[in-house]
Known about the structure:
The structure is a homotetramer of 380-residue chains. Chain A has helices at 13-28, 45-55, 64-69, 85-94, 109-122, 136-146, 182-185, 189-205, 328-343, 351-370, and strands spanning 2-9, 33-41, 60-61, 75-78, 98-101, 126-128, 153-161, 208-216, 221-223, 230-232, 238-245, 250-256, 265-272, 275-280, 286-291, 301-305, 374-375. Chain A is globular. Chain A is built from 10 helices and 17 strands. Chain A folds into 2 domains: 2-130, 3-Layer(aba) Sandwich (Rossmann fold); 132-374, Dihydrodipicolinate Reductase, domain 2 (2-Layer Sandwich). In chain A, α4 runs parallel beside α5 (109-122) and α8 packs across α10 (351-370). The first copy, chain A, has 380 residues and is of the alpha/beta class. The interface between A and D is large, with 38 and 39 residues.
Amino acid sequence: MKKLRIGLIGYGFMGRAHSNAYRKVGNFFDLDYECVLQAACARDPEKVQAFARTWGYQSVETDWRKLIARDDIDAVDICVPNNLHAEIAIAAARAGKMILCEKPLSMNAAEGRRMVAAVEKAGVPNMVWYNYRRVPAVTLAKHLIDEGRLGKIFHYRAKFLQDWTISADLPQGGTGLWRLDVKAAGSGVTGDLLAHCIDTALWLNGGIEKVNAMTETFIKQRKHTLTGKVEKVGIDDACATLARFKNGSLATFESTRYARGHKALYTLEINGEHASIFWDLHDLHRLQYFDHRDQGIVRGWRSIHVSDGDHPYMKHWWVPGLQIGYEHSFIHQVADFLQGVASGKPASPTFRDALETQCVCDAILKSAKTLKWEKVAAVK
Amino acid sequence: MKKLRIGLIGYGFMGRAHSNAYRKVGNFFDLDYECVLQAACARDPEKVQAFARTWGYQSVETDWRKLIARDDIDAVDICVPNNLHAEIAIAAARAGKMILCEKPLSMNAAEGRRMVAAVEKAGVPNMVWYNYRRVPAVTLAKHLIDEGRLGKIFHYRAKFLQDWTISADLPQGGTGLWRLDVKAAGSGVTGDLLAHCIDTALWLNGGIEKVNAMTETFIKQRKHTLTGKVEKVGIDDACATLARFKNGSLATFESTRYARGHKALYTLEINGEHASIFWDLHDLHRLQYFDHRDQGIVRGWRSIHVSDGDHPYMKHWWVPGLQIGYEHSFIHQVADFLQGVASGKPASPTFRDALETQCVCDAILKSAKTLKWEKVAAVK
Amino acid sequence: MKKLRIGLIGYGFMGRAHSNAYRKVGNFFDLDYECVLQAACARDPEKVQAFARTWGYQSVETDWRKLIARDDIDAVDICVPNNLHAEIAIAAARAGKMILCEKPLSMNAAEGRRMVAAVEKAGVPNMVWYNYRRVPAVTLAKHLIDEGRLGKIFHYRAKFLQDWTISADLPQGGTGLWRLDVKAAGSGVTGDLLAHCIDTALWLNGGIEKVNAMTETFIKQRKHTLTGKVEKVGIDDACATLARFKNGSLATFESTRYARGHKALYTLEINGEHASIFWDLHDLHRLQYFDHRDQGIVRGWRSIHVSDGDHPYMKHWWVPGLQIGYEHSFIHQVADFLQGVASGKPASPTFRDALETQCVCDAILKSAKTLKWEKVAAVK
Amino acid sequence: MKKLRIGLIGYGFMGRAHSNAYRKVGNFFDLDYECVLQAACARDPEKVQAFARTWGYQSVETDWRKLIARDDIDAVDICVPNNLHAEIAIAAARAGKMILCEKPLSMNAAEGRRMVAAVEKAGVPNMVWYNYRRVPAVTLAKHLIDEGRLGKIFHYRAKFLQDWTISADLPQGGTGLWRLDVKAAGSGVTGDLLAHCIDTALWLNGGIEKVNAMTETFIKQRKHTLTGKVEKVGIDDACATLARFKNGSLATFESTRYARGHKALYTLEINGEHASIFWDLHDLHRLQYFDHRDQGIVRGWRSIHVSDGDHPYMKHWWVPGLQIGYEHSFIHQVADFLQGVASGKPASPTFRDALETQCVCDAILKSAKTLKWEKVAAVK
């Protein structure tokens, strides 16, 4: 079995999720490649040592440039705040490394274009961790759509609702809170949450032509963890947008961190001529499916418990009725990435795919300022 | 249009539900008969006057014998406590009146047999108000079963759970509380709640061969409203039973007034070889249906919103998606009763049908005492 | 008891719903006024005769001007297509009649202003049938908001989704289909469905400052029932809008008749600082409520079965756990209207209240054309 | 960190679930002990080699006696069919090994008593894999009950419903199908499914006094995989039982493999004086909780998404709203076992705890034969 030696940069929430995926994938998937946890990298030497010990990384680095320079690293995994993605990814590409980058790809589309250029010039496998594509219920939705079961699509609706920043006492910036600092995150819920909705939407329903958005920052000032001062909040707390897809369907997208009662409620619904689909991250193992072709008197939304052996990815796990969870979407993504490396047919979303999401997010944020419909720029 | 002149005895909860049904049925169903609210009867002259005024009854009586003796009454509706059903019904039958009797039919099967004999000898139309058969979702279940969609039945499961008698301070006996007084009610939850489950079960799944039950009275003594004294509680607060149907299926039935959180949770589930059905009174306008013949990857429980024009009874009401409620089951029952009178094909459940439920209840209460399996006696 | 003699114009779906309400209200509510079904009016003499017979109207008219001229009519109920509301209402006001008008108030705000002026000049009680305010779960939501339980409101979200016009074979115009004919309806889903969402939103969350909308007509041409020719479809099949409330909250509204799987899915959600609320017309007897002040480990969305005696309107009906349906919202509205007449404190929504909804709808339709944010005009 | 060297016997479904737990526990829990996958053991040398490779076991054995005899094994994990549990466990105990044994403990209580005697005599840590106790929602239920929130318990209700053996073509016996062979399994659904319900019930609600059960074998004969002949089916396909707990509460338990539409529907409900609880394995990350002490108008079943940091076990995983799955219950059990070894306070259920479940199952199977209430034998 071939080895794929991984150097992971960053040890936060995503560093754990990815490490878990690398460690588990070989137990459940029969692959040509085996993941080797070669090195973990972060600035704090003690913390990165502890992280490496917990997860079984064989070595540590405190400077990502050194990690990239190492000959014994095949792939670099970027799990640091958004403002560092571009520099690291471009350097890694130049060093000939495969790259797995956390989402969103970049701070904006301009930066993203440079990253795409870099990986494509280097010819290295590259992928962005939009993990929800590989929740089995979402993958099943993709299959159903690709089979043409829904017919012409009329409506797409997605929301990602959270409620963790309602308190005005929450500071911005620093470990665990960089998502509230516009300098580190680039944007607020648009890049953090809505980007997930957009990625899935582009995958399931094709390109978006134009958008018309509003954003709001409910809490205008927060203490900054790093400076200790009360500073202006630069991120969007909430974002809602109208959109029109290239296939003629109408869409609404919304994300917020001020929806009391919702921890991570990513929902999506698609209404087609013949059938409709609904999914909800809070019960991620279920897909709701309505098929108008069912006989009238017994027609209804079907609650599909996506845990059978013929459901996407599920033959690798347990037995019907026993659900998997959030972390498994990452394991599936690693499995697909490794198969992509083996077959030469890259697993999506590549940097180029993720750039399209970035273009949509840019148009949304622009529209929220111009207060007008904005066309989504082409990736190229 | 022919008139059916009704004399109603009792003005409690059921008196209202039936009066509402008589008043509304003609607005929604095209029938040969029109209901005329001829007389209301109860012992308290002031209260029965007020009731008659509210509902538009043209006259009142304070003695049910006088009501029965009147020439201008075609049908007698019995809405009084269970211990009075037999005497009134037998007298009404002898007087040649049609009879609509509240459930349960009687205090026990012996009494019920006399009632059946009386109405059959008199040859008068007769019906018992087991109204849940005519909730559209339940009627739809009956249609699906009769079409053979479920195949061989393996399991039947029904419960009727309430929580309104948990307080030890609640008295027994008197208006609104006669259901806690064994002398008026005959039994507790078995005749009040489980009898509904049994009636539906016999209708949907055929005869029950034998039962094995336990009952419990959690609160042993309660003040009696009529005597003012603390008296032994004679009713069953809870009842659970195993049963075997004649078709070979296994069943569990349960009813209680001590299930905190459930107001009137009547649920039933049937598991067949090919398909299963689930229904819940708390959301009575929905039927859950699972069909194993659906394609595997999109197989799931279908939540059918039973509000389309091709669903049972629903073409008479509003438009798809707009739900009807509890009271409509009574209106449907009146419509079917009137059609039965017109056609000569009696609407079910007749006294004879309801006697079968009584025989099952008797066997259940007996088993709870003998602690053994008991055969259900034949109706005849 | 005083009598309120009603003259109803139109005998379609709404004519039935209102007639049912007038007939039933007195059986369940103790009121100073009694509704008398004095006259039904429609152009077709045979059909209006049949309708009057079914519902017990004492007389018929075939010309609404004659109905209005009658001395024995106290209140006029307008149940005809939208393009006739203004003329009839203004004439009825001049004749000194109370007016109950179907929603939407008018074809547009300009027309609505004339109607408001007419009723206010005449000093007659007036109301518009936005019935969903009086679904007990929605009324309960209003109470909870008014008590301040939700705190500052961040988000409002409402949708009204149907799927009955997806077929291109459906004609426009004529009985039952005038809602597809822009000349009769004024607009498509905006006035028919979204107007309900807007009415409730204004009631629950206060005024809307500005909107930004898109509309779409998926089927561009349909045969017209009255002309027999294929004609351009002038209505909006779908409408989605962003909005900002005066209280600073952000909103999304959407309505469509192309959402496969949804018959009449009116849902609304409100997210406040402390608590959130969700309601769904398909299960109208339930309110979902999340209160962040609940202890953390047992915090969750509460599914409230709004059927207890202390829930709005419910003491008038059955017992806890037994649900009422769609039609009851109209009965509650009649009860409140009659109490308003008795007390002199008008029941909402009055014509003036409904005009505010009209102003929002106008702004939405304008925005869909200008492709810009549009301010909602003041009622005055 | 101390090492706990594991020898696993059997490589089926449970062998995978346990191996996964041993491999992951250290990544998520901070423990004194580290699991070492020392040896895997099974009769087929090739298959056990492949299994060891997949999961990282350092060595293999094909004779469990040799495994037990090895000095470098601290704990033996028994994942073989039920008929082999006793012999292996008793030998392992004599060899001084810690033992983790799959459920049910044994073929019957008599065998179980010998196993308890063996481990207690040897003084070795021992545990049985009733994993559902450690689904966080179930553990939360235990906490709520132990805090006294439910008050006096009136009712306990549990079911474990599956539908995978409905086809008469399914053979019995052999790999994957030994659960249908009474010689290997001891019983059918009683030991396989109902035992889970009983274990949780004893934990949550205390001892069971007596039971009254029925069982059924719907398919009387099946081809035997090992003999190739059609043989009588000795297992129970379905089992339903009434029970009385020592605390006075009434219970119903049911398990079947003939409930079309249910893959692994383990549900439990407890109704107490003040509060009730409901849980469902198909959505294992949710606990339904009803508290009567909530204010009346906002009282309802709370759907608790058990994914917050203050919910049992959850601080070790991701962030609120992101669900874990089935396999995590095993990881939690390993964590607790290791903490038990470290602290000397054994994690439950021990062999002795599991023997109590065995005594209940024995009484159930006996009652199904005697057709009478049977007392549950004491463990001692």
